[in-house]
């Protein structure tokens, strides 16, 4: 374990990522950067004081230059949507924040793998890809890795089967046009549709999944959590830290992250999530999954919705 990870943004998500990383064996150095110096110093002090229960780790409240030689940089900076604010207005505000961060961090950490978490994540990943000047394999949007985790959680509870036996994914935008390609939904090596009969033969009463309701559960979970507690940060942090462990592993993994499309499924010049081979060298490429005509149409719908937003923002 010798990875250096920089987290930019010490809000709920960024600080929880730093805290979660401090409890894992993924990083030996963590740098937390935020424009609010007092906040970031307080977060680091709080996190560092709990690290006596693990192997030694360095955690500092830093400036951009402290990110030098980072293996991974995680960008979480941005503001939450305010009442009455349109999605486009929020997007432009967060794009402007990203435009101010990008040259500063890329200058000191040009070889790092970048994980974009700031929302709207697919747009932010696209913008960072366009303005950073970095090779695309170094840029990974957290995309629908959280949505897919929510799906596995929901299916696990419905089927009463461990989450690690559920292989199902959410594709497209991390947002309202995301969808579940049920063609690729499996319980271990058995398709979801086949599993009902198998469970029944074992005396287990398993109702068929209401697919529309499950998609709604995935899409609305974030809003429900925000309504109840004000923000979401535990599950997204766990997802990002899992991505960090993938990027520091000895071999590649397949997951749903957002990256630039180059003709896959007939989609080009937009970032969204499909199955992607990711590992210590960043993104290695897309893994084509068999989908039916309706599912491919849903992916195109998601891409078109994102392109419509991109067309309305200022990248200069």
From TrEMBL:
<dbReference type="GO" id="GO:0005737">
    <property type="term" value="C:cytoplasm"/>
</dbReference>
<dbReference type="GO" id="GO:0006096">
    <property type="term" value="P:glycolytic process"/>
</dbReference>
<feature type="binding site">
    <location>
        <begin position="9"/>
        <end position="14"/>
    </location>
    <ligand>
        <name>NAD(+)</name>
    </ligand>
</feature>
<keyword id="KW-0021">Allosteric enzyme</keyword>
<dbReference type="GO" id="GO:0004459">
    <property type="term" value="F:L-lactate dehydrogenase (NAD+) activity"/>
</dbReference>
<feature type="binding site">
    <location>
        <position position="39"/>
    </location>
    <ligand>
        <name>NAD(+)</name>
    </ligand>
</feature>
<feature type="binding site">
    <location>
        <position position="81"/>
    </location>
    <ligand>
        <name>substrate</name>
    </ligand>
</feature>
<feature type="binding site">
    <location>
        <position position="142"/>
    </location>
    <ligand>
        <name>NAD(+)</name>
    </ligand>
</feature>
<feature type="binding site">
    <location>
        <begin position="147"/>
        <end position="150"/>
    </location>
    <ligand>
        <name>substrate</name>
    </ligand>
</feature>
<feature type="binding site">
    <location>
        <position position="34"/>
    </location>
    <ligand>
        <name>NAD(+)</name>
    </ligand>
</feature>
<feature type="binding site">
    <location>
        <begin position="117"/>
        <end position="119"/>
    </location>
    <ligand>
        <name>NAD(+)</name>
    </ligand>
</feature>
<feature type="binding site">
    <location>
        <position position="232"/>
    </location>
    <ligand>
        <name>substrate</name>
    </ligand>
</feature>
<feature type="binding site">
    <location>
        <position position="13"/>
    </location>
    <ligand>
        <name>NAD(+)</name>
    </ligand>
</feature>
<keyword id="KW-0520">NAD</keyword>
<comment type="similarity">
    <text>Belongs to the LDH/MDH superfamily. LDH family.</text>
</comment>
<comment type="subunit">
    <text>Homotetramer.</text>
</comment>
<keyword id="KW-0963">Cytoplasm</keyword>
<protein>
    <recommendedName>
        <fullName>L-lactate dehydrogenase</fullName>
        <ecNumber>1.1.1.27</ecNumber>
    </recommendedName>
</protein>
<dbReference type="Pfam" id="PF00056">
    <property type="entry name" value="Ldh_1_N"/>
</dbReference>
<feature type="binding site">
    <location>
        <position position="150"/>
    </location>
    <ligand>
        <name>substrate</name>
    </ligand>
</feature>
<feature type="binding site">
    <location>
        <begin position="119"/>
        <end position="122"/>
    </location>
    <ligand>
        <name>substrate</name>
    </ligand>
</feature>
<comment type="function">
    <text>Catalyzes the conversion of lactate to pyruvate.</text>
</comment>
<dbReference type="InterPro" id="IPR001236">
    <property type="entry name" value="Lactate/malate_DH_N"/>
</dbReference>
<feature type="binding site">
    <location>
        <position position="119"/>
    </location>
    <ligand>
        <name>substrate</name>
    </ligand>
</feature>
<feature type="domain" description="Lactate/malate dehydrogenase C-terminal">
    <location>
        <begin position="144"/>
        <end position="313"/>
    </location>
</feature>
<dbReference type="InterPro" id="IPR015955">
    <property type="entry name" value="Lactate_DH/Glyco_Ohase_4_C"/>
</dbReference>
<comment type="pathway">
    <text>Fermentation; pyruvate fermentation to lactate; (S)-lactate from pyruvate: step 1/1.</text>
</comment>
<feature type="binding site">
    <location>
        <position position="167"/>
    </location>
    <ligand>
        <name>beta-D-fructose 1,6-bisphosphate</name>
    </ligand>
</feature>
<dbReference type="InterPro" id="IPR001557">
    <property type="entry name" value="L-lactate/malate_DH"/>
</dbReference>
<feature type="binding site">
    <location>
        <position position="100"/>
    </location>
    <ligand>
        <name>NAD(+)</name>
    </ligand>
</feature>
<dbReference type="InterPro" id="IPR036291">
    <property type="entry name" value="NAD(P)-bd_dom_sf"/>
</dbReference>
<dbReference type="InterPro" id="IPR022383">
    <property type="entry name" value="Lactate/malate_DH_C"/>
</dbReference>
<dbReference type="GO" id="GO:0006089">
    <property type="term" value="P:lactate metabolic process"/>
</dbReference>
<feature type="active site" description="Proton acceptor">
    <location>
        <position position="174"/>
    </location>
</feature>
<dbReference type="InterPro" id="IPR011304">
    <property type="entry name" value="L-lactate_DH"/>
</dbReference>
<keyword id="KW-0560">Oxidoreductase</keyword>
<feature type="binding site">
    <location>
        <position position="152"/>
    </location>
    <ligand>
        <name>beta-D-fructose 1,6-bisphosphate</name>
    </ligand>
</feature>
<feature type="binding site">
    <location>
        <position position="64"/>
    </location>
    <ligand>
        <name>NAD(+)</name>
    </ligand>
</feature>
<feature type="binding site">
    <location>
        <position position="94"/>
    </location>
    <ligand>
        <name>NAD(+)</name>
    </ligand>
</feature>
<feature type="domain" description="Lactate/malate dehydrogenase N-terminal">
    <location>
        <begin position="4"/>
        <end position="141"/>
    </location>
</feature>
<feature type="binding site">
    <location>
        <position position="87"/>
    </location>
    <ligand>
        <name>substrate</name>
    </ligand>
</feature>
<dbReference type="Pfam" id="PF02866">
    <property type="entry name" value="Ldh_1_C"/>
</dbReference>
């Amino acid at each position: 374990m010798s990875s250096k990870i920089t987290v930019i943004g010490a809000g709920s998500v960024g600080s929880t990522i730093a805290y979660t990383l401090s409890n894992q064996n993924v990083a030996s150095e963590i740098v937390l950067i935020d424009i609010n110096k007092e906040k970031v110093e307080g977060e680091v002090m709080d996190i560092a004081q709990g690290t006596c229960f693990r192997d030694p780790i360095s955690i500092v409240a830093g400036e951009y230059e402290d990110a030098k030689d980072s293996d991974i940089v995680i960008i979480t900076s941005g503001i939450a949507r305010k009442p009455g604010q349109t999605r486009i207005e929020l997007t432009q505000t967060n794009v402007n924040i990203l435009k101010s961060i990008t040259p500063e961090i890329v200058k000191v950490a040009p070889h790092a793998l970048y994980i974009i978490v700031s929302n709207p994540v697919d747009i932010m990943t696209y913008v960072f890809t366009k303005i950073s000047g970095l090779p695309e394999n170094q840029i990974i949007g957290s995309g629908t890795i959280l949505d897919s985790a929510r799906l596995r959680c929901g299916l696990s509870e419905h089927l009463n089967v461990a989450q690690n036996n559920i292989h199902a994914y959410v594709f497209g935008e991390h947002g309202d046009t995301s969808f579940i390609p049920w063609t690729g939904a499996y319980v271990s090596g058995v398709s979801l549709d086949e599993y009902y009969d198998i469970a029944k033969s074992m005396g287990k009463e398993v109702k068929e999944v209401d697919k529309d309701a499950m998609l709604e559960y995935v899409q609305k979970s974030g809003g429900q959590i925000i309504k109840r507690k004000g923000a979401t940060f535990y599950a997204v942090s766990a997802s990002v830290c899992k991505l960090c462990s993938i990027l520091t592993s000895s071999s590649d993994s397949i997951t749903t992250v957002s990256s630039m499309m180059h003709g896959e499924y007939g989609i080009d010049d937009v970032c969204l999530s499909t199955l992607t081979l990711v590992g210590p060298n960043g993104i290695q490429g897309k893994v084509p999954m068999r989908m039916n005509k309706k599912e491919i149409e849903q992916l195109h719908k998601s891409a078109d919705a994102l392109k419509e937003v991109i067309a309305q923002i200022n990248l200069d």
